[in-house]
Amino acid sequence: MAKEGNVLLGILAIILGILVLIFPLFSVFTVSILAGLSILFLGIWLLIQSFAVWEGNKGVSIAYLILGILGVIVGIGLFGNIMAFSFLVSFWLYLAGFFLIFSAIMSLFAKEGTAGKGSGIVGVILGILYIVLAAYAWNPYYLAILIAVWLIVDGIALFFINPSEIVKMEN
Questions:
Q1: Mind telling me which residue stretches traverse the membrane in this protein (predicted)?
Q2: Quick one: 140 exposed, middle or buried, by C-beta within 10 A (0-12, 13-18, 19+)?
Q3: Given this model, what pLDDT does residue 10 score?
Q4: Residue numbers in the chain where pLDDT is lower than 50
């Protein structure tokens, strides 16, 4: 059984999931603001870093400068822009899905035994699932539903899973 702190986190995740279901567009708008702000702050930090390392390494400084400018532009573009946020989420889900399928197919050919083939098949199925989810993530309403379902499932899982036990099993 989960620890008391995990149960509280689970309850919080379920409540947030229900709130996202009740207010889907407001929730996606809020997440787009938070994502935009965080990328904007990251861009500003990278700009500051570009000037801080100028004396030591000009190449790194220029890389920081370019990434900082891109971060500021993307952060401003995402700030409160529901469609831009939905596009980016959908794009990353498509990209992850194609990478999963590609690596799973490679795994099917490279690995031997039942476990290797099984992991390849699971990878293909997950990749297809990511691509299907990406098709729905274009619509901000469906994106909110996907986020809400994830929060609720994760909240329920926190009732039964103790993350410290998972770490012990891996070691």
A1: 7-27, 33-54, 61-85, 91-109, 121-138, 144-161
A2: buried
A3: 87
A4: none
Report yes or no: 115 and 86 within 8 Å, Cβ to Cβ: no
Supply the angle between the helices 24-52 and 82-110 in degrees, to the nearest 10.
80
Cα–Cα distance for residue pair 168/30, rounded to 1 Å: 36
Task: Report the distance separating Cα 48 and Cα 63, nearest Å.
Answer: 12
Q: Looking at the domain assignment, is residue 169 inside a domain?
A: no
d(C-alpha 145, C-alpha 22), whole Å: 10
Q: How far apart are CA 79 and CA 31, in angstroms?
A: 9
Domain range for residue 54? 4-164
**CB of 145 closer than 8 Å to CB of 23:** no
Looking at the domain assignment, is residue 111 inside a domain? yes
Cβ(152)–Cβ(19) below 8 Å: no
pLDDT of the residue at 80 = 84
pLDDT tens-digit readout, 38-52: 999 999 999 999 998
Query: Using an 8 Å Cβ cutoff, are 81 and 32 in contact?
Result: yes
Q: Is residue 91 part of a domain?
A: yes
Does the residue 171 lie in any domain? no
Closest C-alpha among 39, 13, 7, 47 to residue 155: 13
| Model pLDDT, residue 169 | 54
Residue with tokens 């809400």: 148
Domain count, the chain: 1
